[in-house]
Fold these 2 entries.
Entry 1:
Amino acid sequence: MKSLVLAEKPSVAREIARVLQCSKKSKGYIEGPRYVVTWALGHLVTLAEPDDYDKRLKQWRIEDLPMLPEKMKLKVIKQTSHQFQVVKELMKRNDIEELVIATDAGREGELVARWIMEMVRWRKPFKRLWISSQTDNAIREGFARLQPGTQYNSLYAAAACRAEADWLIGLNVTRSLSCKFNAQLNAGRVQTPTLAMIVKREKEIKAFVPRDYWTIRADFGDYYGDWRGKDGGRIFDYARAEEILSRIKGRMAAIKEVKTEARSEAPPLAYDLTELQREANRRLGWSAQKTLSILQELYEVHKLVTYPRTDSRYITDDIVPTLPLRLKSMGVGPYADLAHPLLQKPLKPGKRLVDNSKVSDHHAIIPTEQPLQLKSLNEEERRLYDLIARRFLAVLYPPYRYEQTTIITVVEGENFHSRGKVEIDRGWRAVQAVPSDKDEKDEEQLPEQTLARHKKGETLEVKSGKASKHKTKAPARYTEATLLTAMENCGKLVEDKKLRESIKGSGLGTPATRAEIIEKLIRTSYIERQRKELVPTSKGIQLMDLAPPDLRSPELTAQWEQRLAEIARGQGKRLDFMADIRRDTVQLVQNIKSDSSSTYRADNVSKSKCPQCGRFMLLVNGRKGKILACPERSCGYRQPEAEDFSGKGGNSRANRRLMAKYSNQEELETNLGELLKAALAKKEQG
């Protein structure tokens, strides 16, 4: 008898098959003496579409909403149905006695396998492979300690609830908005409150009125001091700044206080996925999706890092004995001299790295025991690995230690503050640059300078004084780094104190889904990337006036995410959660239906008419660039942007030349076929 191993991707399945000594390759699976390894390419199974319940629901009509199936059905995904048939036939083989779920070790990976099992009606025993790296050793150890599959029933329940909630909320609200305002408007339980944060910030920026303020700096000879009043260092009345300057110039100053303190700065925590995405965005300018994609390559292909989609920044006790081998394996090239000192004495990592209570499904992202071969990595993989490797080393290094001296100097009753620092031990800072979130300096923070020895009561002459003019700054637009932080900590935006405490630690989405949420907002033309900034479009801003208030708020979504986490831990009930989701769905749809004052106006209308229905098409984002889409939902016609003659497309200069040649668009379209034939003939002639 044999065990059937179900992986998520063909590449992972091939690696598992090799380790398990399965060498007989067949279409859709690899077989060996004890195991048969197959894969769930494209997930294979998904929730049924509305028209699978009722053919009438193929048409979008507001009177048919809300859609609330009594029991959510599953269906095989058409594009990968051939692989589903392979898996189904394997599951029904008489010589298969058990199933090993080897999909990604997380909520979504669990769902992939369980839905397939449900469709096939699997009734035999099943076990779970739960590993945090793809090395040969990790796979062998994982199969040596397979867990009972039923141990992950709560995780499956949470995953199914998440999928069903997204179906009910997303499809019903999207159809309601689209039908109500006759436009392609989509919404969801995570993407809408995320968009709401971006739109709210944009409105704050536009409403912001800058104010002038002044700061004063006095030169005392071998050091300088910055003026500080009761409310900080800003003076909003120029006359007052001038008055202070006139009083202190040429006067004698006295040192009121000299304080020297020994300080230390602990290493930063190891990376979880969200923190690594933030850091890569700040330092490398990468999108969250790009970081995740390259990280997956380091994990699956090169096997150099542990499981990427983690929300923990700590490791567990059982990982500590493996740290020396990890250091030896990565201690080559630029990391050799940094790893060597750590290997000279026993490693005793503290609570900054090891904390069982702060690890749920997977520990922090750290290097594996796989020997590092930098030549096998491309430039982008090396750059991301460098962040992970240096952070891992930094966490194992001692704190950064220094002496900080603060001097308060008084002139005519006005206080001037100075600060200096002397490094004692660079510690972890010798390994990794200061995390980029500490690079963003607070204007009120005192600058560091070299301070000579001074004593309390010492008098000095004010050599000069200067008032510098500044302007208050509007709130910064979100970057992907700051948006990821806001999504992770959306509970801070909740005004109700009790509710804020209750959802502490909950966020919008999960580390595994946040990158895709941002990309979806861009694809659907709700936001745009402008360099590093994320800027809402007119469509996104308008949607915030049309979407139900409850769905725009992070409170409701964060509460949902918290309850999903409780279900995953076995502390919440699936039926109770779904009953509340259904109730919320009815209310959200009713709010949209009853809205009698809101309107929507598309501002991305092109000059090209739809060849099927005659309406002017919209210029929108497609997966491979700009496209023209008919705004009429019942039509659905689409074409590449290059065929737009509005002057808005990538070929706008060429389009303008064509428009100049012909008297009107109708004449141009009539001659377009001849133009294309001539261009092709010219190309063939070389």
Entry 2:
Amino acid sequence: MEKRYFTIGMAGHIDHGKTSLTKALTNVDTDRLKEEKERQISIELGFAPLYEDDEIQISVIDVPGHERFIRQMIAGVAGIDLVLLVVAADEGVMPQTSEHLEILRFLGIQNGIIAITKIDRVEEEFIELVKDDILGELSGTVFEDAPFVLVDSLSKKGIEEIKELIIKTLKEKEMRDAKGAFRLPIDQVFSVKGQGTVVRGTVYEGTVEEGQTLKIMPTGLDVKARQIQVHHQPAQKAFAGQRAAINISGVAKEELERGHVLVSSEHFIVSKTLDVAIRVVEELEHIVKQRMPIKLHIGTSEVMGRIVFFDRNVLDEKTDEILCQLRLEEEILTKRGDRFILRRPSPAETIGGGWVIDPRGDKYKFGNQTIEELEKKKAGSPKERIFTALMEAKSLSITELIKRTALDEVKLTEQLMDEEFILYNGKEFTMMTLIHSIEEEIYDRLQDYQQLHPMKSGMNKAELLQTMQKRIPKALLEFVLDNGINNGVFKRKDQFVSISSFISHVPKNWKKRSENMLEALKKDGLKVRNLKDYFSAAGIPESLELDLERFLEDKKLIVLLDEQLAYAGEVFNAAVEKLRSGTGGEFEVGNAKEILDLSRKYMIPFLEKLDSMGFTNRVENKRIWVK
């Protein structure tokens, strides 16, 4: 059975005992900063290992509760699989508890356990009141049926019970996808003397292993995973759901920051314009206006931007899901389905949250038509989602398609049976429409090239692919080209590709001069001048010499002896036959000089050409006829 990895989070009001509960569960004090010790509050995210066996590994994040540290709280919760909502028995539900609940709802956290802490401080009757208070607060949320556990971190009451409940709940839960492309939103960056830069975060999806080449997004910096640690223990790999620290080479600490994302694939989308679906908090303190500044929290990123509505100019009360757009000041890496929180920068308050419909939004007009289009995009039939993903990436594996479309493998496989979709290299899918459009582009490029270079056999295949593979995967280009050759659209000679109907030729305006040049070469027979002299005498410009030389050689109208000398094709062939008929099965240089009446200047290049063309085989001082 494949091992599964999960991260759970603590959430709740300041001083309700989250850090103490974490320590009681894990024996790790997650308040590690001097300032945290002095002020007795959590400022940064704290992490600790909770449990591990052959089936499962569980980590804990202690999330700051103070309102000023809401950014860290969102960064921590965004990567968790289960939340412990901590409520102190002596205080009950507090304003921050409610805000954390809202954030958990917006982030789509489905699994929760309610931990009522500090139970030794109150009478049993008061605990029942706290329970009722919590039940009222949880009514209508995904946590309304969440189990309650009474704990006291100092005396360890209820600690084993809550630990067993966490393990049982997560053993019944599917872990994040470890098979897709690796993604780790960075929440901490630091350096270790002698080791260099280290980043830390929760692996959202995929797997990373030591030595793997990765990218920092959205900057695009290439790095390598030198070492991996999971809870201070060296590891060869880190999996989706695990907390991991990765020592990376190729980048300085100063080039990184919280909010950057470490990925293994270039298929992830970087964008500043997001089409989104949002819901707002139960009670908005201030009106949200069209194009109002907002602060977006997504993964570990915190980005300023503006909210753009298409069906209203003001949002002043709780409403159903709203389809709108976020236009950001900086590029971020995100994908369809990613959850986020929206906050007002000033005065600070949580506005709402939602999910990304399309990470590559466009500019739309205000009005119902745009809302209708966004509705379609949001609902997006399975086929439409596949179509959109392939139009963006051109070619995707089944794993990447699952990520892009949010379809499960069974549903996705059903859709891919449609004849519009093609599995073209045994592992990646594309579409017939894309194949046709890429083929047309190749055709146009070859046609343009052939007009500029009519004497060449075609365009060098490597050059052709290089001009297109920044936008289209090389494997797909290779497939379309080979498919076109098989279907008679293109043809290939050695490394050169052309349109099937193309025949290389000398342009009309140079045809007569090239004929004159050939006639002069024939006239001189075997005692020719430098080939450049013939080009010059015929009035052929130097810029055309190389193309014309290769064309004449390809058509066998000339035979190049070396870089300077060439014979007319028929003169060369006649000389070969004369030498063959004047010798037996073998001959020496002296025999050849007598028969052809040539000096060493011509004789040696001529004989070496015979060797290279396979007419003869040299053995010491003799040459033996082969063909």
